[in-house]
Amino acid sequence: MTITPEQIARWRKLRAEATSGECFCEDTCVFCEGNGERRIAECYAGPNHNEQAYANAAFIAAAANHWDELLDEVERLRTRVERLTDINRALNLERTIYAELEAENVTLRARMAEYDSIDQERAELNRTHKAFRDTYEENERLRAEVQRLVGADIREAVMQKQVVVWSDDKARSVIDEFSESGLPLYEFAASFGMSEVNLRKRLTQSAPEAYEAAMEARREVYRVGRKFEYDVRKYLVSLGYVCMVSPRSLGPADLMAAKRGTILLIQCKSAGRIRAAERQSLWQCAHAAGGIPVVATRSAFIVFMRLTNCKKHSRLTRYAP
User: Fold this and answer.
1) Range 224-318 classified under CATH 3.40.1350.10
2) For 52, which of 37, 97, 233, 244 is 20 to 30 Å away at the CA?
3) What pTM value is reported for the model?
4) In 3D, which of 258, 276, 266, 278 has the Cα closest to residue 305?
5) Beta bridge partners of 38
């Protein structure tokens, strides 16, 4: 039962309207000493129940004497209950705030774990990049050695007066073969057993216009290919990959991309053709780095094809990064 302030006020009014003064009981009667002694109540509990009547009279006298004290205590306890209710409400609010802070703490811990994972991926990417750089430096060393050896052979031929200017037809045939090969000039010259400098000199002396046209076409192909590489890189970055571009596209892969433990080694071929040597080099490098060899081509949009093996005529399978 809840005692309301209205009930307390009504009970106080009842006591105020009743006879004032100190009450006491004699036998079954209740007397009040205020403004002269008077009898205010007599209790009757039926025949043979005098003890019950005595108890009722004593209770009425005690209630009348302590009525205001009881109501004061009720109001004091009511005030204390209200204060404790406010304290409990504040504690519940603090518990709610604590729960929210705990949930935010869990979220922050998960984010820290994610950052730790990203640091691990960055470390793996740095190791892979170092392997690429070591491979590139080794290739550069071998190329310099080949050029040195080829240059020595050419110098010996010059000394023996065996170096001659090619005819126009011969030069144009070599230029056409160079254009179709897709090889850098130094690799194409090595296939002829010549240095890059010597081959360029022969072609510029024999067919300068055809050579300049072929080189301009090669530069245009390079610009188109370079733009396609940056388009592929931009697309992969939008998917959340960390990308690195190979300088001058001289490495086994034009791009290296990594995301959450996945490493992609990508050759960008806007025309979709990849030479056997490039396929072999890309496959071996990806196998050594624990990555996935991928060829990026362009149709209406960028398409990724995965190398399933390093065989020359093996089919490429569609890949979704």
Assistant:
1) yes
2) 37
3) 0.41
4) 266
5) 32
